[in-house]
Every structure is written in C-alpha cells, then in structure tokens.
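Chains adopt folds. We examine one example:
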Amino acid sequence: MTALTWLARLIVFAILVVFALQNTDPVSLRFLPDMQWQAPLVMTLLVFFAAGVLLGVLSLLGLVFRQRREIACLKRPADRPAAQTELPPVV
C-alpha cells in the first residue's frame, strides 16, 4: 500500500513540475495605478494559493480554540472524584 501512495505522490509531483515548466511566462499584476508586479505565472499562482490556504487556516483558528476551551470546561467536572460531586443526604 505504501508503494501505491509513493507512486501517486510521484505522479502528482511530476504533473506539478511539468505545469511549472510550461508556465514560466511573465505576468503583470497591477495593484494600484503606479504599482505593478511582474513575476512568472507559476510563482504568482503559488503565492496566491499559499495566501488562500493561510487565510483559510486563520479563519478556523477561532473555532478550534473555542471548541478546545469548551471541551476543557466539560472535562473538569468529569475529572473530580465521585464523592465530591454527590449531594449530601437530606435530614
């Protein structure tokens, strides 16, 4: 099974290398009227893909921390011994 995984990774890597070699033409990005950035197409795609991944991860951080805090609060009563959580008998 690991051989199949490495074969799939090798095929994907080869496809990405061929894509990168075929898309080396320079492109111009204009952000502001006097600001222009020229870079190869493949580098531009890589930068914007990485920025999208980073924004996606950052957008989920709040949810992850909130869930961890909630799980920690729910575990606290479960960690106490049973004698402390029982109510005393009513006389």
About this structure: The chain has a mean pLDDT of 87. Residues 41-79 form the longest helix (39 residues).
